[in-house]
Write a structure and sequence with these properties.
alpha/beta; 9 helices
Amino acid sequence: PMPVKVHAAVLAAHSEIMLRLVKASETLGTTMPFFKKNAPPEIQLTRLAVEGATSMLEGSTSSIELDGWLRKSVVPEIKKLGTSILIVETSTVAAALDSDRDPKHYIRRVLAEHGIVTQFIMHEVPDPAKPKPKKESRDFKALNTVTEAIRLTGYFPTAFIKAKNIPTGTTILSIRLDRINEKGDMIYLPVITRSVADTQKCEVYWFVKNDPSRGQWYPLTEGIAAIHATPSLINPEAINKLVTWSMLVAADEADTPLIVCLDSNLRTFYRGLKDSPDNGLPPVPANAAVVRIRVDNDIAQMSGNHSEHPTQPQYIGQKIGVFQSLRSPAVYYFV
């Protein structure tokens, strides 16, 4: 097969950032466990030649100046390269600002309006007063940044796993609800994705651009940009609409098998997903299998495998499987 190439632009005030990213992209296959087994794509990185990056990225200018710089200088340069992925340098100076002055959020939103998705990497200045840390040969921050940039292109090096008993062509629709607590307000962000088992493609469901009365499935990169370009907060009514609309067009083809994975955080809006008995579920299509997923610190952890150690709890090790609770036979743990 033809080698896969991905191209990302880099917006950096310091050349050291570019050196770190190039080294990371060249060593992914030998340093990251996942890419040791699955060959990474060929990664092309291009640094944008734009003036004024230092002051803009540190947040020492007004948002009006930053906006003009992004639209007039940065966006045209990225468009020339024909990529939708931008790795952006950030600094401890910017991170120390109040959230409304930190340029990261603004940069992400303005670029997303132009269909460009962003991944940030910190430029770290060593503190001469602190002892030098033991040199770690691998630059994990740069390696993770490059890995995330690959993911943002929508390229997945391996197919989504299909268990033996899952029919070919099964669509997996997942709805996750992020809860962000900001200044006392709870902001909800629904992330609705779908993929077909045993394929390498993932799509995102979001509002049609400039039309909050309709939704659509986007390729991954475009979907992430559409989410980041949305300036207004998502209210419960909008979440309900998005979830309902996505269910109406859950699969690309009618009458194909469907698994719907629902985040337990959705219980705020759909009471039937609570731990205790209640009513109200999203309008899941008939005949779909539903999986409720709960991942948080309040879940009772398994104390052991009674089949192997009936007298006392013991660490179960790296065993993947479905376990049935002895105390409550209706409760199953997938580990």
